[in-house]
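Quick sanity check, Large ribosomal subunit protein uL18:
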Amino acid sequence: MSTQQDLRERRRQRLRFQLRRKGGGRPRLSVFRSGKNIYAQVIDDVAGRTLAAASSLDKALREQLKTGADSDAAVAVGKLVAERAVAAGVSLVVFDRGSYMYHGRIKALAEAAREGGLAF
């Protein structure tokens, strides 16, 4: 019988495969959330390097946020990663939500990144 962690890993791998297949070589906006913080990075899988990154642990955001684990933090991280990606010359990405549902903090980050100038 599969454990919860195995199922989460299978879901993440299935989504990553679809992104590679349909992404057309575009960089991906990858999101990771923990119980206390949220992280986002724009990754160029062809070159194997990170183009832009932001998290709720960044000094600029840490001072503004009450906690790194709520939707307000996700919105701030989404705007910051979009700003940094646009500055790096990236505006078209694919959204990699990992094994997380498109709901709550993940949705808030995605919508803020769209408002910040990223298209996906």
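Posting the structure with no commentary besides this: The domain at 4-115 is CATH 3.30.420.100 (Nucleotidyltransferase; domain 5).
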